[in-house]
Recover the amino acids of this structure.
């Protein structure tokens, strides 16, 4: 199966490789770093939604 990775238009770096990429496969959400594509984190839509909600509310701003 060919996984269609997506990345944000806000990705930076000369070649756009300073980003996280996401994909959906077999009902799971997959995440990877563009500069280390062999390491893939698997999660669910609900967990990703919870994380993104926290990020939008600034819960992780101290880490950036």
């Amino acid at each position: 199966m060919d996984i269609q990775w997506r990345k944000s238009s806000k990705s930076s770096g000369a070649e756009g490789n300073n980003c996280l990429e996401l994909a959906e496969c077999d009902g799971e959400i997959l995440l990877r770093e563009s500069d280390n594509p062999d390491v893939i984190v698997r999660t669910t839509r609900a967990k990703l939604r919870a994380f993104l909600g926290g990020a939008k509310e600034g819960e992780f701003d101290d880490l950036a």
